User: Fold this.
Amino acid sequence: MRRAIYPGSFDPVTNGHLDIIQRGCKLFDEIIIAVLVNPDKTPFFSVSERCEILTDVMKDIDHGGCTLMVESFEGLLVQYAADRKANAIVRGIRAISDYEYELQMALMNRRLEPNIETVFMMPAETYSYVSSRLVKEVFHLGARIEGLVPALVEERMRHKE
Ligand code: PNS
Assistant:
């Protein structure tokens, strides 16, 4: 049984995140999509809204035989991953600019918990520039975000405005 944690802020979940989850399904039996509870940030969607949205949009993705779960977590990622008996942490890498920070985190996580491997995955090129931060920025400035996030996310963002 191979269980992975896919951690992140997911504020909001993008099509890039879903692409990574779909690819991860080919490698793992179970993936827990873990939403970070970060009291230092003021999010667009609350943690419970993000979990609800993730659960909803995941119904539409092709997950093969992989079981997908959505949870939230607080504190150290590796502690949470060890508690959930995960073998791996999945992170998406879009460009070289992501790599430096991700490498630092992966090596720190390995030092803290040597039994959990970090697996970097590349999303489809179509999503190589898509980030939650940019989606929110262009949305707030009135641009269309169709194709960058699931339709449900766009709808929820419009209602929230
Ligand atoms: O989607 P994000 O915001 O890039 O995800 C970052 C995340 C949640 C993976 C990272 O902030 C994290 O792991 N936070 C939990 C606290 C922790 O373990 N920090 C040490 C990292 S080496």
User: Anything to note?
Assistant: Residues 7-9, 36, 76-77, 105, 108-109 surround 4'-phosphopantetheine (CB under 6 Å).
